[in-house]
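tl;dr need the bound structure. longer version: we got a ligand (KG4) that a collaborator sent over and nobodys looked at where it sits. i said id run it. heres the input, straight from their email, havent touched it
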Amino acid sequence: MTLILGIESSCDETAAAVVRDGTNVLSNIVASQDELHQEYGGVVPEIASRAHLERILPVIQKAVAQAGVNMQDIDCIAVGNRPGLIGSLLVGVAAAKALAWSLDKPLVAVDHVLAHLWAPMLSGAKAQFPALGIVVSGGHTSLLLLEDPSTARCIGKTIDDAAGEAFDKAASILEMGWPGGRLIDKAAQKGTATHRLPRPRLKNNAADFSFSGLKTALLYGVRGNPKRIDGETVFPRIASSLSTEEKNDWSASFQEAVVDTIIRGVKEALKNHSVKCIVAGGGVLANSRLREHLLSVAEEFHVQLHVPELSYCVDNAAMIAGLGWHLFSNTQFANLELTASPRGIAS
Ligand code: KG4
Ligand code: ZN
């Protein structure tokens, strides 16, 4: 039996978890910072790293206590050290190194994007390799070919906004709040995709994605074509003049365009690469429509699909501890010179 303490601080969630043998989650503590960033409509890196600093030790202590174990029972510390906001990552890395040194335990360094693909295993999924990995989150929209859980090659990614970021910006255009993905998903369930929005195709690599043109199309659709007046951009309409029904229809239209774009990339990848299954992860996997469409693609291509349960879609430390266990089992240890990096396997 191996107990791994996972630590995650790559963006705006301070998280710690204790996981037994890679899949048995004994505790999973996530302290969200949503309320701190809400008024800015996005994550402010400086605020995020300060909040991590205040929260990291209480969150770790809570995770160990809730797991019903002592610090000394932990066999290894796993930390997400890449990719992400550098100031935020450094808080987790410093805490993990201090614990590993003071407790004299091994340390493993986990790629956050690959960890999202471990999330389905936390609910009993058993992925077979090679696998196609799909990570769709606030920071990433990436397709990966996985040889095993920690060996991957990126075969497609967004060239501008991530899909989650696009959802958040769409909610902001529609004046619905932040973070917006969940709000758009909810509104879309009550609406109809009546508006035709673009599904950008990329010439260089058909498995790459682009979402920024779609966001602009939504802005112009909702607020009309802007004019330059006295050097300022002026829109003929404001979003608050829309009725709830109109917002629901725009949400459904936008969601359909994002999901279609992702699915087209996934199909392209499946046509060109032979895989035994699909593993998916990231906050946007909480989206009901994306889950539905991925299931039909998996059926069409006769491959198994593994998606995380909803609580493991968004950033958490159980997925870090899970992939950390795989690295620990393969003796892929880090040393105390470990540092953080804004770049990872898919960026
Ligand atoms: O994985 P995550 O917690 O953070 C990153 O690693 O980036 O993903 C957060 C993203 C946010 O952009 C949020 O709006 C989006 O996931 N999201 C959703 C839904 N729930 C969360 N997007 C679409 N539909 C949802 N139901
Ligand atoms: Zn993430």
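gonna send this back to them w/ a short note. The longest strand covers residues 24-32.
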